[in-house]
Amino acid sequence: MATSSIKPSLKNRHCLGGVLLMSLIVGNVVLLDPAHAQVNAADKVVVAHRGASGYLPEHTMEAAVLAMSMGADFQEQDVVMTKDDQLVVWHDLTLDRNSDVRHKFPGRAREDGRHYVIDFTLEELRSLSVTEGYRLDDSGQEQKIYPERFPLWLGNFRIHTFAEQLEVIQGFNRTTGRDVGIYPELKAPAFHHEHGKDIGMAVLSELKRFGYTSKDSNVYVQTFEFAELRRVKEEVQPALGIELKLVQLMGDDGSYYWMSRPGGMLELAAVADGIGPEKGMIISADSTPDNIMISSLVRDAHEAGLEVHPYTFRADEGQVPAYARDFDHLLELFLFEAGVDGLFTDFTDKAVHFLNNRP
Ligand code: CA
User: Fold this and answer.
1) Is the pTM of this model over 0.85?
2) Ligand 1 ion local residues (Cβ < 5 A)
């Protein structure tokens, strides 16, 4: 059966479990992969994870623009707050992995030796040089975390605000006629609350200011902390008079297990529109080429009406699991065997190319 050229509605996408059941009832006459039958490649979404971070330092404006030009459907922003309550696009709560903070601000580390975004003003943060992620080895030498990625300290990359990135995305959409969506993450809301900062309210207020107000707006708001997601749903959004699509991120550790137990998905669905699981929760890392072990997570999520956008797909050497032949095969397994609705990748161009060329 050919894939439909008609774009299925979200409702159809959420009924894959029902389609599977139908296939079984119809019997053994036609062997259909329900994912193939219902969803074509054009319906899968590519989320640029921290921008085109496989090619340029993550969360720089340059990386965001490159990802959009590569055809990303959504551009991700991790968002943290500064000492003076500004929102910046940055992944870690600390600055040490991607900047020269230890040279520019000696004596400003906490007892753990790290420099926290929340201890610096926006003006101070703007003075930092940003670079590819690195760590210090035992001899104090800087070693890139992904050795083949962008060279350390080349270029003049800077921290920018959430609003500045939204301006660039909306401007880019105007000049190109595209409709690149956004996928902001509330980083460590409990940590921010402990420091007297309401990052949920701050981010959602900014989204409203930029015109993202309803579930039809091209935005997903994500966080790992379910308590905050529920607070956004029940308190923050009603206070602002907006209602956006919300995504619960799931890590591969015990604190998230309840979400994938019976009833857990339904409890999530009362708050969230989708889930963002670590990819090993969908296809076991213990899989082999002859034995791909797909969990029930995608099926259960779809039955609860939740979209599924797993993370993180990396094409660097050593980052493609051994059960997959190559990066394209990894994408094929997740998008069309496990049936996820989209995925977070550091390599937007490769995912877009794969989807555009899939028969
Ligand atoms: Ca993120």
Assistant:
1) yes
2) 78, 185
